[in-house]
Amino acid sequence: MCAGGSAHEMWQGVMRFIMQSNALKPFKKESKRIIRWRNQKGK
Fold first, then answer.
1. Which one, 13, 14, 31, 39, has the greatest CB density within 10 A?
2. Are 29 and 2 in contact (CB under 8 A)?
3. 34 lies in which domain range?
4. Between residues 2 and 13, which one has the greater pLDDT?
5. What pLDDT, on the 0 to 100 scale, is given for residue 1?
6. Total domains, the chain
């Protein structure tokens, strides 16, 4: 759980970036890929 601290902060930054870039349609596909990658890392 402790090791996830910095990773969580990084994910917050990624989510903020996605929110700012949500006008870009192709980026939605990329965000889904990032989420899938993050879920694999979480295991």
1. 31
2. no
3. 4-42
4. 13
5. 47
6. 1
